[in-house]
Amino acid sequence: MVNALLHSEIHDLEREIARCEEELDILDREERIIRRLQDEITNEVEEPVKRYDMTVSDEFRGSLETSAEEMQNQIYTETRLLQEHTSELLSEMVRARDRIREHIEKCRRRIDQLLAEIEAESHNCAM
User: Fold this and answer.
1) CB neighbours (10 Å) of residue 111?
2) What is the pLDDT along the chain (127 residues), one digit of tens a residue?
């Protein structure tokens, strides 16, 4: 009876490990997508907006130029802020992945304990 309960717990832990490994795979895929998109935004939006020169020459071109420069600064500032939020999300994903791995290790240690208990019980019954 005890042996069956231990095997049942082992089975539950193995299912939990499999579920966690699936979650890790999902996190890895999503992180790769987010990093790729973040790089695209940096290379195709943020950097070009930052580098684009609104002035044709050193002369002041009036309020239209000023408005364009203000808009350019706003686009860059908002893009940079969103990129920082994306970096925070990626950091949270790394922390979540670490917690999942710790949980998997905890489950594996428990499985090892249960197997040792089963082995000890089998050894005791054989005597």
Assistant:
1) 19
2) 678 899 999 999 999 999 999 999 999 999 999 999 999 888 887 777 777 666 555 555 666 667 777 777 888 888 889 999 999 999 999 999 999 999 999 999 999 999 999 998 887 776 6
Sole residue written with tokens 């095997």: 7
Say if residues 23 and 43 touch (Cβ distance below 8 Å).
no
Q: What percent helix, strand, coil does the chain show, rounded to 5?
A: 90, 0, 10
Query: How much is the pTM?
Result: 0.76
Spatial neighbors of 3 by CB under 8 A, at least 6 apart, are: 118, 121, 122
